């Protein structure tokens, strides 16, 4: 059975689609499945934001075929690891958990890079134009660490 990892942000159009594409590019497809979802429902079935698609392409990652979906309670059982982009996502997801086992699957993604610091991946949606590149670099660094840990543990 492949190990399943879910990336979660608010809209599922800017940060988590990038995180999905970046982590998937660092893991062997036979052993791992990476998906993403948003806590909000505005962008269900939509393509990622064109600025996320563009920054991913610049780094040779294609996220254009992803489709937005909303986080659901059954994701706690469907996934082995759930990485959230910011503290607000963390609280929204934890509020839906039924028990400690489900809560323990949820981690702030940048805590892999900056342990226990609870740093947010900033939402680039309304931000400055290079915000997507900044987010890409943060996610790339933290996904390097995540991929090495997962490969070490599960292959
Ligand atoms: P994301 O960014 O959570 O990184 O996908 C957002 C995109 C859209 C909205 C919020 C956050 N929105 O409110 O439409």
Primary descriptors:
Rossmann fold, four-stranded parallel sheet, 4 strands, 14% strand, 155 residues, alpha/beta, binds 4-nitrophenyl phosphate
How do you describe this structure in short?
This protein is of the alpha/beta class and 155 residues long.
How would you describe the overall organization of this protein?
The chain has 155 residues and is of the alpha/beta class. The chain has a single domain, classed as Response regulator (Rossmann fold, 3-Layer(aba) Sandwich). Helix content is 40%, strand content 14%. The chain has 6 helices and 4 strands. The chain has a 4-stranded parallel β-sheet with strand order 2-1-3-4, with helices on both faces. Helix 1 packs across helix 6. The termini are close together. The relative contact order is 0.21. It binds 4-nitrophenyl phosphate. 4-nitrophenyl phosphate binds next to loops.
Helix content percent band: 40-55%
Spans with pLDDT under 50 lasting ≥5 residues?
A: none
Q: Report mean pLDDT, rounded to a whole number.
A: 97
CATH topology name, in short, is Rossmann fold
Specify Rg, calculated over alpha carbons: 14 Å
Query: So, CATH architecture?
Result: 3-Layer(aba) Sandwich
CATH class descriptor name: Alpha Beta
Largest sheet: 4 strands, parallel
Small molecules in complex: 4-nitrophenyl phosphate
Largest beta sheet: what is the strand line-up? 2-1-3-4
- Terminal Cα span: 11 Å
Computed structural class? alpha/beta
Kindly report the name of the CATH homologous superfamily: Response regulator
Number of helices: 6
